[in-house]
Design a protein that fits this description.
This protein has 107 residues and is mostly helical. The chain is built from four helices and two strands. The protein has helices spanning 7-20, 29-44, 71-80, 89-104; strands at residues 49-50, 62-63. The structure holds heme C.
Length: 107
C-alpha cells in the first residue's frame, strides 16, 4: 500500500536529515538509539515486517521501506500491531525512529 507523504512529515524528515549530518564516525546518542530500535524491531516486528525494500511471502505484514507515514500515524500503527510482548511508548518511539532512519538511508 502506498501513501502520499504529508508535507508536514516531509518537513520534519528533512529537518532531522539536516540535523543528522556531520555525525559520521563515532556512535552518537542518535545512532545508539537507532541500534536499540533495530533490535526492538527485529524482536517485535521482524516476524511480519522487513525494511529492506523486498517483500517476502513469509512476512505477512509486508516490507515497510516504502511505507512512509506521518510519525503519529506510524506510531499508532505500531501500537496496534499484534506484538507478542507489549511495548512501552518509549520502545514504540525507538522502533518508529529506526524505520524512519532506514527510510532516510542512514542506518
Ligand atoms: C503478527 C504479525 C505482525 C506483527 C508482529 C507486526 N505487524 Fe505490522 N502489520 C501486519 C499486517 C498483517 C499489516 C497489514 C498489511 C497491509 O495492510 O498491507 C501490518 C501493517 C503495518 C503497518 C502499515 C503498513 C501499510 O502498508 O500501511 C505498519 C506501519 C506496521 N504494520 C508496523 C509494525 C510495527 C512497527 C510492528 C512492531 C512493533 C509491527 N507492525 C508488528 C502484521 C504484523
Amino acid at each position: 500500500m502506498r501513501r502520499a507523504i504529508a508535507p508536514a512529515a516531509l518537513a520534519v524528515a528533512l529537518a532531522i536529515t539536516v540535523a543528522g549530518c556531520g555525525s559520521a564516525g563515532a556512535p552518537t546518542p542518535a545512532s545508539r538509539a537507532t541500534a536499540a530500535g533495530r533490535t526492538l524491531f527485529a524482536g517485535s516486528c521482524g516476524a511480519c515486517h522487513s525494511v529492506t525494500g523486498h517483500n517476502a511471502p513469509s512476512r505477512q505484514g509486508g516490507d515497510l521501506l516504502g511505507v512512509r507515514l506521518p510519525r503519529p500515524v506510524a506510531l499508532q500503527y505500531a501500537r496496534e500491531m499484534p506484538v507478542r510482548h507489549k511495548l512501552t511508548e518509549a520502545q514504540l518511539v525507538r522502533i518508529v525512529d529506526y524505520i524512519a532512519a532506514v527510510q532516510r538511508g542512514s542506518r
